[in-house]
Specification:
Largest sheet: 3 strands, antiparallel
Structural class: alpha+beta
Number of helices: 3
Order of helices and strands: HEHEHE
Oligomer: single chain
Strand content: 15-25%
Number of domains: 1
Strand order of the largest sheet: 2-1-3
Length: 91
Protein backbone atom coordinates (compact mmCIF):
# COMPACT_ATOMS: atom_id res chain seq x y z
CA UNK A 1 0.00 0.00 0.00
CA UNK A 2 2.83 2.40 0.83
CA UNK A 3 4.36 1.86 -2.64
CA UNK A 4 0.97 2.52 -4.27
CA UNK A 5 0.60 5.83 -2.40
CA UNK A 6 4.11 6.88 -3.48
CA UNK A 7 3.23 6.16 -7.12
CA UNK A 8 -0.01 8.14 -6.86
CA UNK A 9 1.83 11.06 -5.23
CA UNK A 10 4.46 11.01 -8.00
CA UNK A 11 1.72 11.06 -10.65
CA UNK A 12 -0.03 13.98 -8.93
CA UNK A 13 3.27 15.89 -8.69
CA UNK A 14 3.93 15.32 -12.41
CA UNK A 15 0.45 16.52 -13.33
CA UNK A 16 0.84 19.66 -11.21
CA UNK A 17 4.24 20.38 -12.76
CA UNK A 18 2.80 19.99 -16.26
CA UNK A 19 -0.09 22.32 -15.44
CA UNK A 20 2.34 24.92 -14.12
CA UNK A 21 4.42 24.74 -17.31
CA UNK A 22 1.32 25.10 -19.47
CA UNK A 23 0.23 28.13 -17.44
CA UNK A 24 3.66 29.75 -17.74
CA UNK A 25 3.94 29.10 -21.47
CA UNK A 26 0.51 30.62 -22.11
CA UNK A 27 1.28 33.71 -20.08
CA UNK A 28 2.18 36.67 -22.25
CA UNK A 29 5.56 38.32 -22.20
CA UNK A 30 5.82 41.88 -20.90
CA UNK A 31 8.29 44.64 -21.71
CA UNK A 32 9.00 46.87 -18.70
CA UNK A 33 11.49 49.46 -17.41
CA UNK A 34 11.49 51.07 -20.85
CA UNK A 35 13.86 54.03 -21.03
CA UNK A 36 12.29 56.17 -23.76
CA UNK A 37 14.37 58.77 -25.58
CA UNK A 38 12.25 61.87 -25.04
CA UNK A 39 15.06 64.46 -25.07
CA UNK A 40 14.72 64.74 -21.28
CA UNK A 41 11.13 65.94 -21.55
CA UNK A 42 9.44 64.60 -18.39
CA UNK A 43 5.92 65.37 -19.65
CA UNK A 44 6.37 63.27 -22.80
CA UNK A 45 8.11 60.53 -20.82
CA UNK A 46 5.20 60.40 -18.35
CA UNK A 47 2.73 59.85 -21.20
CA UNK A 48 4.60 56.85 -22.61
CA UNK A 49 3.94 53.38 -21.19
CA UNK A 50 6.53 51.83 -18.89
CA UNK A 51 5.04 48.35 -19.14
CA UNK A 52 3.63 46.78 -22.32
CA UNK A 53 2.30 43.30 -23.00
CA UNK A 54 3.97 41.93 -26.12
CA UNK A 55 2.01 40.46 -29.02
CA UNK A 56 2.23 36.67 -29.36
CA UNK A 57 4.40 37.01 -32.47
CA UNK A 58 7.38 37.78 -30.18
CA UNK A 59 7.27 34.49 -28.27
CA UNK A 60 10.58 32.65 -28.11
CA UNK A 61 9.23 29.64 -29.95
CA UNK A 62 9.02 31.72 -33.15
CA UNK A 63 12.73 32.63 -33.06
CA UNK A 64 15.90 30.60 -33.45
CA UNK A 65 18.04 33.49 -32.23
CA UNK A 66 17.19 35.59 -29.16
CA UNK A 67 19.21 38.53 -30.54
CA UNK A 68 16.92 38.75 -33.56
CA UNK A 69 13.89 38.59 -31.24
CA UNK A 70 15.19 41.47 -29.09
CA UNK A 71 15.90 43.56 -32.20
CA UNK A 72 12.38 42.90 -33.51
CA UNK A 73 10.85 43.90 -30.17
CA UNK A 74 12.98 47.04 -30.12
CA UNK A 75 11.87 48.02 -33.63
CA UNK A 76 8.25 47.28 -32.78
CA UNK A 77 8.36 49.48 -29.66
CA UNK A 78 9.81 52.42 -31.60
CA UNK A 79 7.36 52.03 -34.48
CA UNK A 80 4.31 51.52 -32.26
CA UNK A 81 4.96 54.47 -29.95
CA UNK A 82 6.94 56.85 -32.15
CA UNK A 83 9.94 57.13 -29.85
CA UNK A 84 13.31 55.43 -29.69
CA UNK A 85 14.50 53.94 -26.42
CA UNK A 86 17.84 53.15 -24.86
CA UNK A 87 16.81 49.98 -23.02
CA UNK A 88 14.03 47.73 -21.77
CA UNK A 89 13.60 44.46 -19.92
CA UNK A 90 11.43 41.44 -20.73
CA UNK A 91 9.68 38.99 -18.42
Amino acid sequence: MKHFIQIIMAIIAAILAACTLIHISNKGMTVYNIIWDTDDNPEVFAELPQKIKLPKKFRRKYYKDNTERIEDISDWLSNAYGFCHSSFEIR
